[in-house]
Design a protein that fits this description.
Blueprint lengths: L5 E2 L3 E2 L2 H9 L9 H9 L3 H10 E7 L4 E8 L1
Parallel strand pairs: 1-4, 2-4
Antiparallel strand pairs: 3-4
Length: 74
């Protein structure tokens, strides 16, 4: 049987850095932290582009079959 790897929900470090960069985008300056978290949890082109521009992804093998996706600001 083929071994399957499970990738966890992303673990985002230094959220304060990311929220300040997100608020620097025109139209986001007055938005709340709750709106930022809503932005991160709904898949969109804007979210994909934001994460690609402002973060680096890495993977940590936690228990052999489970891998944690870590997202860190650039």
């Amino acid at each position: 049987m083929r071994k399957q790897t499970i990738i966890s929900t992303p673990s985002i470090t230094d959220t304060n850095i990311l929220v300040s960069r997100w608020r620097a985008i025109p139209g986001n300056s007055g938005k709340s932290l709750s709106e930022f978290y809503a932005f991160l949890t709904v898949e969109s082109v804007d979210r994909t582009l934001f994460l690609a521009d402002h973060t680096v992804e890495s993977y940590d093998d936690v228990k052999g079959d489970i891998v944690v996706l870590k997202v860190t600001p650039k």
